[in-house]
Amino acid sequence: MGKFQPIDTKLSTLDPQAYNHELALLYQRHIGEKTARFQTILNATDYPELVIGSGETKMQFQDDMAYSFKANPYFREWVPLATRAGCYLQITRDREKPRLFLLTVEDIWHTAPESLPAGFEQAFEVIEYSSIEEVKKFLIDEATAFINETNELGVVAEHWNPQAVLHQIDYQRRGKTLYEQESVREANRRAVPAHRAAQQAFMAGASEVQIAAAYLAACDCRESEMPYGIIAGVNEHAAVLHHHNLFKQPQPPRSFLIDAGVEVNGYASDITRTYAYDPGCDFAAMIALMDIKQQELVSAGGIDESPVDLHVLSQHKIAEVLVEFGLLKLSPEEAVAKEILGSFYPHGLGHHLGCNVHDKGSQLANAQGDIIPPHKKYPKLRAASPMVANQIHTVEPGLYFIPAFLDRLKAGEHAGVINWSLIDEFLPYGGIRIEDNIIVHQDGSLENLTRQAFAQSEVN
Length: 460
Ligand SMILES: [Mn+2]
Prior knowledge:
Layout: H1 16-45, E1 49-53, H2 73-76, E2 88-92, E3 99-103, E4 125-129, H3 132-136, E5 145-147, H4 163-172, H5 178-203, H6 208-219, E6 231-234, E7 255-260, E8 263-264, E9 267-268, E10 271-276, H7 282-299, H8 307-324, H9 332-337, E11 392-395, E12 398-400, H10 403-411, H11 420-426, E13 431-433, E14 436-440, E15 446-448, H12 449-459
Parallel strand pairs: 1-5, 3-4
Antiparallel strand pairs: 1-2, 2-3, 6-7, 7-10, 8-9, 11-14, 12-13, 14-15
This protein binds manganese (II) ion (MN).
Residues 270, 351, 394, 396, 435 line the site of manganese (II) ion (MN).
């Protein structure tokens, strides 16, 4: 395991004040690096400047209630004001500091909008404004590129979300700055106590909705702040990949799959764990073997490694688990060749992680937006381009007992190679997914943010 870095304790052992100070320094470097990268993009795409809006609050149809606001990921890549609508960031080819426009109007009805953490504002020239006309005065000319859901700056249509600029941004986003790495690292640290609380709630017989509530309480977050909806699947529900949590307490509890993260500075963690209620049952042993296979798949990653090859490898590893437990009556190689694995493992091994939970740029061959040709057998994989230094990705193999897929398998030509009575024994447990978040460092070492966070929280 020489590939793995020693546990990072540098920032996490600091007291909160010193931590925030270090983070502000990292942030200023982050903005410096992003500014340089985006100036290269402006030169390459022939735009004098780029403005990125955070977005507007959206009202529900025929109602005076707003949906909870979340700034778009292009803005969050720069500014950790995820809940503040009406902000604009202006990057020009030659200005050293970007301008940050913050909507500031008197409003007695709502809580004051969130502000930047101390020290972060030094990275910008901050301008408070009250009407969009004030922002427009700062635009250089008609050739401004503008990224936002709505075109309230009124730029020329072809300069509003220009694809050439979006591709360039997505491409550079693959390599995370040290600030981004620390944000995802911290998002892992904050998620771990919540994962433990959820496990305890399951063991105490809680419903899925109660388990999700325990998770939120333990990480001290609002549900609207979650990077994605908490998936808390008990028993058969562990086989529903995007399960919607239910109120009824399942009896008896057998298994529990939780897929949940935390958002820190606009960056997500994305963590899955699976538990058996009875530590002595076969399903618990299957989780233990999946855990070994998952760590082998993590280790197989690294700079220049192909995530498509790793996905193929993951098919073999999961086939090995199925064979080991007697569910398949043929070799792992034959099972993969006969394309049986898709019935047990219908998703990809992982994806890039950043300000999008499924971060962009992972399929790009170059900054011009050419896509890596999809694999013939696995055309839908989210990650295709070879791993680069400083990328963050997930590794999340799964093994599920999904009735609809199993019915099809039973009716098909390969029904004879499956041990159906054993399948029936595992069906009530739903399935297994284990997901960690990994940084591929410049020196080739891997940092498993999730295992590290679990290990650290055991020590403390
Ligand atoms: Mn994921």
